[in-house]
TrEMBL record:
Pfam family, one: dTDP_sugar_isom
KW Isomerase (keyword) present: yes
Protein species of origin: Streptomyces corchorusii
Protein's name according to its UniProt entry: dTDP-4-dehydrorhamnose 3,5-epimerase
Keyword terms, alphabetized: Isomerase
Top-rank lineage group of the source organism: Bacteria
């Protein structure tokens, strides 16, 4: 497994495993504590795993948490997604930086999203399973959502958004959402 810094987002990493394929399918390690530790992250800090299943065109995000924020590892375990990370840490050298990834079940690559960054994705295949590993228990009272089509961010979503949650559809602008992240 190889870890690479994401230049557009300070403190973000892309973890790329090496899938071993044969006539049965493939096998790969999707999490390696030693590799995570080698880039200065605490592998024991992650406390909760979740998975979502989306269909082609579904858009989830942009999400972040107020207060201390939430760091996460994100991986598409089946299908393909267009994954987005936006740096919203005011004192970060990459503040308002954006990074885009195509994550897929074929590569099993994982993106580390630092606390204070917004995250979202769009399913590119008929079925896309996305796994999340977060560093503190989820508290819905801290959820912050930003409009996926905010003109200041100008995210180049590859497909029309065919479906999204009410919360995502009614999300405020970046400027309005940032008022709720202070703390």
């Amino acid at each position: 497994m190889k870890a690479t810094e994401v230049p557009q987002i300070a403190g973000a990493y892309l973890f790329e495993p090496t899938p071993y394929a044969d006539e049965r399918g493939f096998f790969c390690r999707t999490f390696d504590a030693d590799v995570v530790r080698s880039v200065g992250l605490d592998p024991c800090a992650f406390v909760q795993d979740s998975v979502s299943r989306s269909v082609r065109g579904v858009l989830r995000g942009l999400h972040l948490r107020s207060g201390a924020g939430e760091a996460k590892l994100v991986r598409c375990s089946y299908g393909r997604i267009f994954d987005v990370v936006v740096d919203l840490r005011p004192h970060s050298p990459t503040y308002l930086g954006r990074a885009f990834f195509e994550l897929s079940g074929e590569t099993q690559a994982t993106v580390y999203v630092p606390a204070g960054c917004a995250h979202g994705f769009q399913a590119l295949t008929d079925t896309a399973d996305t796994s999340y590993r977060i560093d503190r228990p989820h508290d819905p009272a801290e959820d912050v959502t930003i409009a996926f089509d905010d003109p200041e961010l100008a995210i180049p979503w590859p497909l029309p958004a065919t479906s999204m949650s009410r919360r995502d559809r009614e999300a405020p602008s970046l400027a309005e959402a940032l008022k709720h992240t202070e703390g």
